[in-house]
Amino acid sequence: MHTGKLAAVAAVIATSLTLATGRGASLARGSGLSANLAAGAAQVAPASDGTGNGASSPVAPATSSALETPRLEVLAHDALGGRGLNADVWLHHGFAYVGTWAAGNDRLRGCPGTGVKVVDLADPANPVLVSTLAEHEGTSAEVMRVRSVDTPSFQGDLLAVGLQACSGDALRGVDLWDVTDPHHPQRLGFSDVGPGTGGVHELDLVQRTDGRVLALLTVPFSEASQADHLGDFRIVDVTDPRAPVPLADWGARANLGLGQYDGQGIDTLVYAHGAHASPDGMRAYVSYWDAGVMIFDLTDPSAPVLLGRTSFPPDAEGNAHSVDVTPDGRLMIEGDEVLDIESHALRVDSPAEIAGMVPAGGTLPAPPWGDTPTVSGQLAYLGRGCPAGDWEGRVSGGGRVDASDAYPADPSGRIALLDRGTCPFADKIERAKAAGAVGAVIINSLDTPLTPNSADGPLGAFGIGHAAGERLKAELARGEPVTVTLSEELRGYENFGGLRFWDLSDPAAPRAISTYATPRSLVDPTTGPTEPGRFSAHNPVVRGDLLFASWFSDGVRVLDIQDPAAPREIAAWVPPPGTAPEAVRNYLGEGAQVWGVAVDGDLVVASDINSGLWVLRFVQ
């Protein structure tokens, strides 16, 4: 689980682990799931917010009788000790397995190392905690999978859980356990993913048709931070779980030339987040955050072959978190995790076609406009805008400028629009002010905002992403005056994450079919959410013609996906408000925060970060 911003992503992992170019497209921060993914992709209107008091919450009644409406009914609740930090949930042979998260904001209690809790659901109305496993000090154990396997080396129920180090020398890798008798789990083996990584964030476990058992792992930022630059996607042979064998690693930089900020959409961070195996173990689907979902052929698991990958619209946040796929492999549902939706922004006031909020870093008042808290004016594009000088060593990519760059427009009385590069921000900005500019905006070389600074501190200017800057330049090149407002008080908002539906008939060219969002996932880009909460999709689970999705503050959603071009919500349930007094607080806040959902027949279990395990029954 991660936020859309690098700082938050890095914090979570450490502790647990071109805008549209058409004339009429808005520059406002990503409409995300409210925008069509491609020609023919449909945005599906949700049926209800599904809020309730912990009891059944009917949605979109099919008949006049609520009792005949598909719904989720609460059978039981177990607080699992009431300490919070509950992570993903898995369901296998009548037992629920619940992982443990970590929270970096609580240094004393934020990494309890309580591993995986095993809960007996023989009587679903009376869940019983029967054992714990993978209790390793200084680790989180967020995601686990249990499969019944049969190999010459092991016969029984095998559990694999990813361990991430909160700090220090704690374990980083995949921990393997025999849970054939869930009351008495036995540790079998461990595969270390190496120092210089945070550990295994998500994984899947599968026994292939050839008998081999594979663990598919994601090790976020491994390729960027690990000494040997091993790829973020790892494959380990656990056919003999007492002697796991690493088979392969795959990285987006080594294989596609993608740098850490070369993703798609608004926020362009690239790293592997989630891994999912096809039932036969011959395909892998790796959610690679802003690089989309990578689809691999695992015919030879020691040499995975990339078949294709999904894309994001230029105005979407991105954040491919996890997927599930129908058994025939033709339909994939992607969950995008977008939790942090507020950002500093500048406002485009005109022309109307592109008016709106644009994500921006910046400070006002600050030098050289130390007495200017807010400024509005027309933009003047000044190109690179460097004064003469030798800037080598003063700034990354700096060089010598023999003569000051000529300005293609007069900045007097206007807000300077400047390209980043060659000379320091301060020199560009001070030169523009001396020429009469009343403010400044720097266009980043990456599709992310920046905050202009100097050695002396913040500068009184704002920085926007490359694609947003190119759009503004295109308007000016057409002779259109563009008016903007700069103020540190301005904020922009994007939608929370939702679901994307993909046709994988041709895995080399995934086709966007539709998107889905709950009502509270859709946010006014200017005023923001109407109520507190994190209304983002998280984990999708396909069962026949139904899709169950965990949705943080929007609980559990159930969708009819018989027509994937028009998925239809038929039931929803949200845990009651409240967090146990002794629960460790986390940055997501109080109240409902449903991490995971698992389904077996009509039995549904949901893990809530703050309140524990919920046992539900789906009634049709």
Structure description:
The chain is mainly β and 620 residues long. The protein has two domains: 6-79 and 95-101 and 110-341 and 494-521 and 533-619, 7 Propeller (Methylamine Dehydrogenase, Chain H), CATH 2.130.10; 342-492, Glucose Oxidase, domain 1 (3-Layer(bba) Sandwich). It has a seven-stranded mixed barrel. The protein is elongated and about 75 Å long. Mean pLDDT is 89; it is low at 2-65.
CATH superfamily of the largest domain: YVTN repeat-like/Quinoprotein amine dehydrogenase
Name the strands of the widest sheet in spatial order. 22-23-31-28-27-24-32
- How many DSSP helices? 5
CATH architecture of the largest domain: 7 Propeller
Q: Over the alpha carbons, how many angstroms does the gyration radius reach?
A: 25 Å
User: Mind telling me the CATH class of the largest domain?
Assistant: Mainly Beta
Binned, the helix content reads under 10%
SS strand fraction: 35-45%
Distance between the termini: 31 Å
Number of domains: 2
Structural class: mainly beta
Q: Might you state the CATH topology name of the largest domain?
A: Methylamine Dehydrogenase, Chain H
Low-confidence stretches: 2-65
Please write out the topology:
Blueprint: H1 6-15, E1 42-44, E2 71-78, E3 86-92, E4 95-100, E5 116-120, E6 128-133, E7 139-140, E8 144-150, E9 155-165, E10 173-178, E11 186-192, E12 202-207, E13 213-218, H2 222-225, E14 233-237, E15 245-250, H3 252-256, E16 270-277, E17 283-289, E18 293-297, E19 305-309, E20 320-325, E21 331-336, E22 342-350, E23 356-362, E24 374-381, E25 389-390, E26 400-401, E27 415-419, H4 425-434, E28 439-443, E29 453-454, E30 457-458, E31 462-464, H5 466-477, E32 483-487, E33 491-493, E34 499-503, E35 511-516, E36 540-543, E37 546-550, E38 556-560, E39 568-573, E40 594-600, E41 603-608, E42 612-619
Parallel strand pairs: 1-35, 24-27, 27-28, 28-31
Antiparallel strand pairs: 2-42, 3-4, 4-5, 5-6, 7-9, 8-9, 9-10, 10-11, 12-13, 13-14, 14-15, 16-17, 17-18, 18-19, 20-21, 21-34, 22-23, 22-32, 22-33, 23-31, 24-32, 25-26, 29-30, 34-35, 36-37, 37-38, 38-39, 40-41, 41-42
